[in-house]
Amino acid sequence: MNNTSMLTADRMTHLKIVVVSLVCATVVAGIGVTARMTEAGNGRLEATVIKAGAPMTAANEMSQVR
Asked: How far apart are CA 63 and CA 61, in angstroms?
């Protein structure tokens, strides 16, 4: 039984790796689902809106950027 490489590992070693991977993925997904952001007051999140101004061109003697 040579379990030092993924290519030469036996079936039981592969099964153990898959089980550990699934358990870890489930734990990470569970933490992500149960994580909550602290809400302010009525439960709505607010964002600041920044509106773009008029288009302009910036240039120097080497290049021009629009």
From this structure: 6
Q: Which two tokens stand for residue 64?
A: 């021009």
Answer whether 0.85 is exceeded by the pTM: no
Rounded Cα distance, 30 and 59, in Å: 52
d(CA 24, CA 19): 9
Q: DSSP label at 7?
A: T
Could you write out the three-class secondary structure of 8-66? CCCHHHHHHHHHHHHHHHHHHHHHHHHCCCCCCCCCCCCCCCCCCCCCCCEECCCCEEC
What is the predicted pLDDT for the residue at 49? 85
Angle at the Cα of 38 (from 42 to 44), degrees rounded to 5?
30
